Amino acid sequence: MNLQHRATQKELLDQPLIPFDDIRQNMKELEFINQYLGGHAITLAGLKKLSTNNKDLYVCEIGSGGGDNLHALNSYCKKNNINATFTGIDINPECVIYANSRKTSSINFIINDYSAVKFADRKPDIIFSSLFCHHFLNNELTSMLRWMNDNSTIGYFINDLHRHSIAYHFIKFATAIFSKSYLVKHDAPLSVAKGFKKTEWLKLLSLANAKNYTVQWKWAFRHLITVKH
User: Which of 25, 154, 180, 212 would give a disulfide with 125, using CB separation of 3.0 to 4.6 Å?
Assistant: First the structure.
């Protein structure tokens, strides 16, 4: 795999008509990866950076998948007496069915293309995505960044993969040995190949006319991008 430039091939998870049992196994393994390789910690860091007080928070995740990020944030808010409500948006009905099987009253899931969602009553304070942006081409990401900017009142953040040979070969080896999901085995290394260098994020943010942003490298081979209004 040539990692000099972003890979453009579609992941298996982006294909239609994947059986629900395969989706469920994929979601379970992604949650494990997020929990033990720092994904949830990075998402929590993004929330903390943008939310500087304990006001009532409305947080929205686009590309929410199985909902594990929202559950991690919900647990943190409950432990710290932060009144928060959450919305997850995902275009894949099977992912939302899985997410709804373990939802709580403070988390709502919507089946839709994020860009088609209109917030009639109240815009989210914070919008975020985790391991979602790498599914898109660069010209699509510029529109996504602008949408996140226009529909959030405090700001938005992104948690996504750093394209690096160490990350690529590690996850390819680890999933080949330990994963029971053909989706994870195929998509995990490809996701790294579709990830980003810091310079690429800086260019995308500039094209989207983003202001007051930071791009931080995080373990294990991810970037946390935060944009505060």
Answer: 154
